[in-house]
Amino acid sequence: MSAPKSTLKKIVLGSLPLVALFAAWQLLASQGWVDPVFLPTIPQVFHALFTVFSRDNYLTDVWISIYRVLGAFAASAVLAVPIGLLAGRYVTAAELVEPAVGFVRYLPVPAFVPLCILWFGLGDLAKMVVIFLGTFFQMILLVADVARSVPREYFDAALTLGASRRELFWRILWRASLPGVVSACRTAVGWAWTYLVVAEIAGATSGIGFRILQAQRYIETPKVFAGIVIIGLLGLTTDLLFQAFHNWRFHWL
Fold first, then answer.
1. Any idea what the CATH number is for the domain that residue 91 is in?
2. Per residue in 61-118, pLDDT tens?
3. Hey, which of 71, 93, 188, 241 would disulfide with 86, CB 3.0 to 4.6 Å?
4. What is the reported pTM?
5. Does residue 98 belong to any structural domain of this protein?
6. Is residue 182 part of a domain?
C-alpha cells in the first residue's frame, strides 16, 4: 500500500470513534432525550465558542492557561528526566528515589490545592505547582523505565573503550534513552492539561478552568463545553507536536 493511502486509512480509522461520539451526542441533545441544561447540542457549543472569543476576551485566558501548563511541565521535565535516568541506571539512586515517588504519586493532587494556595498565594505559582505535582512523580517512573531498557552491552562496550562515568551518562544513557524520554514527555504533557482545571478551580481570576467554573456557576452549559473543547484541542496540539518531533528526530524507529 502506498504512503498516501496508508495515511488516509489512518486518518479515517482515527476519525471514526470521534464521528460516532459526536453523532450520539447530537442525537441525544437534539431529540430532547437529555435536558439541554445538561447537554447542549453541537451547534450550541460552536456558537458558544464563537461568543467566548468574539465577546468575552477568552483568548487572554487561553494564553494564561498555556503559560501555566507549559511552565509547570517544563519545570517538571527539567527535574524529573535526570532523576529518572539516574534511578533507572543506578540501583542506589533507584532505592533512594522510587519508594518516596511510589508513595507520593498516589496522593490525590486536588487535595494539595488548598495547601498550594496557603503556601504560594493566589498567583500563577500556586497553579503551576499543582500541575507540577500532577506530572513530576509520574514522569520520574516513566523515564526510569526507559533508562532500564537501554541494553547493558552498550555500557560494557563503552567501558571497554575507556569511557568515563560522565561519558557513560551523556553519550550512552542519554542518547539511547532520548526517544523514550520524548515519548514520556508526550504522555506527561497530556497529564498537565488534565490537571489544568484542578489548578484553576480555587482562587483563580483567569484561565480556561476559571472560565469553565464561572460558566457552571451561571448554568451556561454550552460555555462549559466550549472550555472543555478548547482544552482538548490544546492538548491534542501539544501531543501532535511531540509526535511530529519524535517522527522527525527518530525517523528510523
1. 1.10.3720.10
2. 999 999 999 999 999 999 999 999 999 999 999 999 988 998 888 888 888 888 888 8
3. 93
4. 0.86
5. yes
6. yes
